[in-house]
């Protein structure tokens, strides 16, 4: 089973890693509880109020029915299933375009702290990514209508995922002239159903574009210096400092060695991945709030790294090891004056718990009282006792 299909081993390992989190309540993101409330309110009043802008109608609807049937266990299980689909779709794409040692890249994706931490909690990040990779698999199989529908479900779960879906479709359009009309059909299907999914938020906003405006606090938090500082710091902590240095070394080395020729390999896949990742970064510069917004860039950066390191397996192994360590312990270089509302920060170097550890502590705390605003004392996680 695993000898001939090693991808199944990756999926089994991911399942083993993610299953314990199924039993830790809905999650630690306050937006999760907004999603639950949006579904319950709509069911009881038939009045749709989005959990937050711009609206997450598909995810809110699926979560409501899953929650009614099986509570947090089923809602988390659904998200875990979508995370596994994202992993499989990533491996399928890498295999299709002969990315060297893609199983190590998939392992790195699997244990990235933000992918791992969101893989079995009731939140939309990996649901939207999973739908897009399902659409990618369908494109590779030649099923263009269902691919467009899958992309639309991803967009209905989280609107910004259209950057990943649209970037992939555009890249395929450029490299595959014989199927361009079918790719246009996929885009039209995606566009139509996405429009349908955002009719309820538009109706809530009285048919204005107000629902597209994110709530990001007052101007005191968004001076040019604070905006760039947040963007840079959160990117750094999203990957961890050792991982950023490792990625930067190999990518810069590859560019200097090959004079950007590396981006033309594998039918221009690294160019497409780089441009989509850059688009996400420009978007994130506009609203550098939650680091999880950067989750769609993980597979893109890994594809670039995999192609640049070519047949050298050991850099990918080191990258995987560094990501695993960063899930549990990380180096922090700034401590804000106010959590989530910082206007200044102390700079330095501190060894702190990694994202996965912090997320687990919050989840256990939220599970204790089943709401985000908890005064219950944190229960210590086993590895920190």
In short:
The protein has 385 residues and is mainly alpha-helical. 66% of the residues lie in helices and 4% in strands.
List the main descriptive attributes of the protein structure presented here:
4% strand, disordered C terminus, two-stranded antiparallel ribbon, mainly alpha, 385 residues, 16 helices
Fold topology:
Layout: H1 6-18, H2 30-45, H3 57-96, H4 102-111, H5 113-118, H6 125-141, H7 144-157, H8 162-175, H9 180-197, H10 199-204, H11 224-239, H12 241-258, H13 265-286, H14 297-309, H15 313-328, E1 329-336, E2 345-353, H16 355-369
Antiparallel strand pairs: 1-2
Mean pLDDT: 90
**Total helical elements:** 16
Rg from C-alpha positions? 21 Å
The H-and-E topology, N to C, reads as: HHHHHHHHHHHHHHHEEH
Structural class: mainly alpha
The major beta sheet can be summarized as:
2 strands, antiparallel
* Number of DSSP E strands: 2
Describe this structure in words.
- The protein has 385 residues and is mainly α.
- 66% of the residues lie in helices and 4% in strands.
- The protein contains 16 helices and 2 strands.
- Strands 1-2 form a two-stranded antiparallel ribbon.
- A hairpin with an 8-residue loop joins strand 1 (329-336) and strand 2.
- The longest helix has 40 residues, at 57-96.
- Residues 375-385 have low confidence and may be disordered.
């Amino acid at each position: 089973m695993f000898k001939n299909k090693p991808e199944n081993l990756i999926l089994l390992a991911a399942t083993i890693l993610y299953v314990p989190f199924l039993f830790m309540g809905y999650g630690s993101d306050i937006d999760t509880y907004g999603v639950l409330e949006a579904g319950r309110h709509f069911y009881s009043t038939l009045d749709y109020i989005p959990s937050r802008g711009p609206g997450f109608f598909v995810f809110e609807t699926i979560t409501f029915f899953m929650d009614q049937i099986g509570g947090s266990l089923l809602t988390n299980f659904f998200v875990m299933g979508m995370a596994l689909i994202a992993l499989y779709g990533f491996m399928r794409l890498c295999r299709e375009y002969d990315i060297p040692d893609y199983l190590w890249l998939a392992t790195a994706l699997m244990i990235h702290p933000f992918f791992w931490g969101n893989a079995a909690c009731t939140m939309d990040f990996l649901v939207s990514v999973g739908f897009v990779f399902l659409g990618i698999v369908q494109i590779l199989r030649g099923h263009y209508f269902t691919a467009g529908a899958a992309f639309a479900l991803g967009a209905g779960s989280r609107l910004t995922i259209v950057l990943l879906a649209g970037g992939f479709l555009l890249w395929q359009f450029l490299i595959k002239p014989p199927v361009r009309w079918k790719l246009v059909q996929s885009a039209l299907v995606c566009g139509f159903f996405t429009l349908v999914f955002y009719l309820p938020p538009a109706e809530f906003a009285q048919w204005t574009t107000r629902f597209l405006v994110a709530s990001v606090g007052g101007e005191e938090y968004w001076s040019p210096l604070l905006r760039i500082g947040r963007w840079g710091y959160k990117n750094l902590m999203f990957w961890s400092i050792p991982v950023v240095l490792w990625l930067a070394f190999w990518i810069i080395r590859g560019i200097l060695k090959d004079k950007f020729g590396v981006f033309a390999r594998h039918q221009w896949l690294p160019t497409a991945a780089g441009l989509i990742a850059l688009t996400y970064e420009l978007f994130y510069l506009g609203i550098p709030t939650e680091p999880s917004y950067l989750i769609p860039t993980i597979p893109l950066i890994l594809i670039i790294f995999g192609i640049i390191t070519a047949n050298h397996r050991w850099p990918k192994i080191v990258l995987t090891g560094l990501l695993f360590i960063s899930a549990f312990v990380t180096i922090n270089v700034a401590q804000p004056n106010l959590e989530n509302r910082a206007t200044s920060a102390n700079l330095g170097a501190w060894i702190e718990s990694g994202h996965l550890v912090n997320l687990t502590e919050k989840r256990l705390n939220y599970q204790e009282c089943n709401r985000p605003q908890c005064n219950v004392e944190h229960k210590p996680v086993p590895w920190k006792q």
